[in-house]
Amino acid sequence: MSLDMSVSLQRAVFARLAGDAALGALVGGAIYDGLPAGPVPALYISLGPEELRDSSGPGWGGARIDFIISIFAAEAGFLTAKELAAAVQQALADGPLALEAGRLVGLDFLRASARRNGGGRRIDLRFRARVDYEQPLVE
């Protein structure tokens, strides 16, 4: 089932970002799946939307998961947001992610888009993960 691999990938990505020292120095614990109630920090990371496509075949299972990680910065310039985006990209490139369900076959950075977001800035980083089951499926 592809959805369990999606859950596993999200947990692994969140754990990697939350445990990265460089990101911790920039945003502390301001890494969210869903924003907390009340005021949000001036600089934070948000796990965003994803698109999952099943890529199973006869006797094996897998999925392609495109996902977005967003950087939000309250300040008017892009520099701080870009520094944080670069740190996110590096954290995910630092080595393979261990998944609870399935196996990460590949994780690629696809593109980034930066834009004004009210008085602040937003950068969306798009990644593509390819995951499969570690063992063939039973027919």
Descriptive overview:
With 139 residues, the protein is an alpha+beta fold. It has a single domain, classed as 2-Layer Sandwich (STM4215-like), CATH 3.30.2000. Helix content is 29%, strand content 39%. Strands 1-2-3-5-4 form a five-stranded mixed beta sheet. A hairpin with a 7-residue loop joins strand 2 and strand 3. Helix 2 runs antiparallel to helix 3. The longest helix has 18 residues. The chain is elongated, with a radius of gyration of 16 Å.
How do the strands of the widest beta sheet line up side by side?
1-2-3-5-4
Low-confidence stretches: none
**Treating each run of at least 4 consecutive H or I residues as one helix, how many helices?**
3
CATH topology: STM4215-like
Q: What is the H/E order?
A: HHEEEHEE
Distance between the termini: 13 Å
List the helices and strands and how they pair.
Blueprint: H1 2-19, H2 21-27, E1 31-32, E2 43-54, E3 62-73, H3 79-93, E4 103-117, E5 120-132
Parallel strand pairs: 1-2
Antiparallel strand pairs: 2-3, 3-5, 4-5
Helix pairs in contact: 2-3
Describe the structure in brief:
By secondary structure, the chain is α+β, with helices and mostly antiparallel strands. It is built from 3 helices and 5 strands; from the N terminus they run ααβββαββ.
List keywords for this structure.
single chain; alpha+beta; 5-stranded mixed β-sheet; STM4215-like
